[in-house]
Amino acid sequence: MIVDAHVHLFPDRLAEAIRSWFDQHAWDIRYRVGVEEAVRTLKEGGVDRFVVLPYAHKPGMAEALNDFTLGVAREHPEAVPCCTVFPGEDGAERIIDRALGELGFHGVKIHTHVMLCAPDDPRLEPVWRASARYRKPVVIHCGPGPAAQGYGGDVRPLSGAARLRKTLARHPDAICIVPHLGYDEPAQFEALLDEFENLFLDTTMAIAGYFPDGADPEMLRRRPERILYGTDFPNLPYDWKRELEVVRGLRLPAADEARVLGGNAQRLFGID
Ligand SMILES: [Zn+2]
Question: DSSP letters along 83-131, please?
């Protein structure tokens, strides 16, 4: 089974706003498509399941975004819905608890750059506690890169392996997935894997050769039990299959390739 552990599907107007932000601050998105076409592309490309990761860029919008994501999953059984919450927003603890509990979301997405909130910020305590309680992963973009301008603040001091380490030491039972192999600190995040058994990384954009200083794909050979395949589709400046080809090109032992491409995600997100 192939699971793309990192996909972004948003309501049309928000997706359009995100694309304009990327046009201005990051890269030229190749797939300017709505939900239906995005889902069709993944399915036709052989992806069996994909994890949908919404993120809120301001307080007060998480619940609507979470509802939208549940709606996508109802229409498309291949979609594995995760929720989001804006750190410190009114009712944050209730929102996260209800989403991972009663509403059955499979994980939660936090973006330290978009939310201008470091991984060890006290406002994230309810998120780490809920992860440990429900045994569901927090997908937290907390590598320092790509450190685009336009986030409304300097994101470098708000991210990095050292700051995540402080939190994981306090919440050893929380399950954590760091996208982009921790780019641009892949070595530091890889070292953290030794320290925390509930820490995982995803490959998103880090091994596609897009960033000249991206991560070493050989990390997958060293850590197949701790790395998940993910793409960031559709917000990509290149062919989404590029990363899949890199993973396959490594010619990992079959069992290891199966873990990276789907098995680890199945276990962590509870995918049948
Ligand atoms: Zn992403």
Answer: EE--TT-TTHHHHHHHHHTTT--S-EEEEHHHHT--TT-GGGHHHHHHH
